[in-house]
Amino acid sequence: MAGAAPQPHTKSGKKALDAEINLVPFIDLLSCCISFLLITAVWTQIAGLQISSSGGPPEPQQKQEQTVDLKLLLTDKGYQLTMPGAAVEIPKVASVSGQPAFDRRTLTDKLRTLKASLPDQTAITVQPEDAIAYDDLVSTVDICLGEQLRNVTVAPLN
Amino acid sequence: MAIVEPGKRPGPRIERSRVFSKKFTRGKKTGYASLMLTSLVDMFTIIVIFLLMNFSANGEVLYMSKDIKLPDAYHGAQLERAPVISVSGDAVTFDGHQVASTDELLKGDVLGVPELEDALRDERRRYETIHAEDVEHPFRGLVNVQADRKISFKVIKRIMFACNQSGFGNINFAALAKEGEAPRKVALK
Collapsing DSSP states into helix, strand and coil, what is residue B98? Predict the structure, then answer.
């Protein structure tokens, strides 16, 4: 296999300086690479939202004195954010399709405000009703994780 | 009569002549056509770079089923390889084997799912047997739950309870990874 085939002598007898690279083995290599990568390609990226259930051991928090027992209830009326001495109702609002949907934007804002006042808070307990869809549960857990509440516990409401 | 090529044809005497016959002989065309390969190589290189950028060494952790439409998540972590509990509208499967019907789990107030708990305990026993001497890989109780977005929490609750009963307290909810800020789907009042 010749990597570069030199040009034949010209009429004047001088050797030509241009060399032609043999591209065939390179194309073979690229074809193999493309085949391998296409076969092993993962087209859907799956994410994992790690939660602990109410029966599992809670992860210890470093500064217990600066955290509160934060609970987020998911009911058919909307969100209810509770902590000792305070409770915030976030009712459902009309979605684009006209159906009432959880107000994720307001929840994000509320959690952001809470996180700003309690920077050491990492734990939150999400308590959905039985009729709540998995989609709403996952999006709520996702919002909590996005607001740096990394220790999410999911427990039934009743 | 033989078919001849149109054009000038020398007479037999001129054709035999050393001097004049050269005028009538035509140069033979070579049978090889040179192919322009540079653009092909460019295209291949671009495809290889694109595929390499999308390459994931983890491979497929979950088997994507048509019955299960996963919700979206913007802050999820990389999903680890672990036993998978799939929940579709019809059935609950553990590593591909059906252990319960979703309708059954929607009925009644009992929390336990005995078939799922048995399967999980078997899995735990199998893991602990395999890794008995392996101190670096202790049993962490990791399990992936892959459920359709419309499944109600009542079903998920029972599955979580079964996981806890079997020692799988480290539950991962599977979702489709999205990038960027979450879209504002909710219309403001």
Answer: strand
Using a CB–CB cutoff of 8 Å, tell me whether B17 touches chain A. Answer: no
Residue B173 to residue B7: CA distance in whole angstroms? 82
Token pair recorded at residue A40: 């092993």
Q: What is the ipTM of this complex?
A: 0.71
Burial code of B133-156, b = ≥16 C-beta within 10 A, e = fewer?
Answer: eeeeeeeebbbbbbbbbebbbbbb
- All structural domains of chain B, each given as residue ranges with its CATH number in brackets, are 72-177 (3.30.420)
**Total-model pTM:** 0.72
Residues 85-124 of B with CB under 8 A from A: 87
- Tell me the three state secondary structure of residue B3: coil
Show the domains of chain A with their CATH numbers. 4-40 (no CATH), 52-154 (3.30.420.270)
Give the amino acid at A73. L
Mean pLDDT of successive 10-residue segments in chain B (189 residues)? 74 77 64 80 93 78 82 86 89 88 83 87 90 83 90 90 88 86 45
Residue B160 backbone dihedrals phi, psi, to 5 degrees = -60, -40
